[in-house]
Amino acid sequence: MKKLPDAQLELMLIIWDADRPVTRAEIEEKMDDSRDVLPNTVLALLSRLEKRGFVKKERDGKINHYSALVEREPYMKEASKGILKQMFQGSLKNFAAALYDGEELSEEDAKELMEFLESKVKR
């Protein structure tokens, strides 16, 4: 599964969060207000997502409803692994170092991270 471009990912996040079929207008309402996006742009992005197999379109009268065909968690897991491999040579240590470079890690965050890592260690 390929990583989605940011604009398509923004639409998918809206669709996943809705947890029901949504219309183009509903998607536009939820989009980042910092950008003016034309309805035709949203339709083009939805069309690309449909061609890639991420969403399906169902017509109800004159209105199209879009729903996710790809689930959020499997996509996020694959995308995260791709970023880890591509940008951090697959090293979780390098990734964590990049996140906290020069910043203090709270005791609570450190404890939570240690517990997570200990639960994942093969014994």
TrEMBL record:
UniProt cross-references to InterPro entries, sorted A to Z: BlaI_family, WH-like_DNA-bd_sf, WH_DNA-bd_sf
GO biological process, one term: negative regulation of DNA-templated transcription
Coiled coil: none
Gene Ontology MF: a single term: DNA binding
Keyword presence, Transcription regulation: yes
Keyword entries, A-Z: DNA-binding, Transcription, Transcription regulation
Recorded superkingdom: Bacteria
Presence of keyword DNA-binding: yes
Similarity section: Belongs to the BlaI transcriptional regulatory family.
UniProt protein name: BlaI/MecI/CopY family transcriptional regulator
Lineage of the species this protein comes from: Bacteria, Bacillati, Bacillota, Clostridia, Lachnospirales
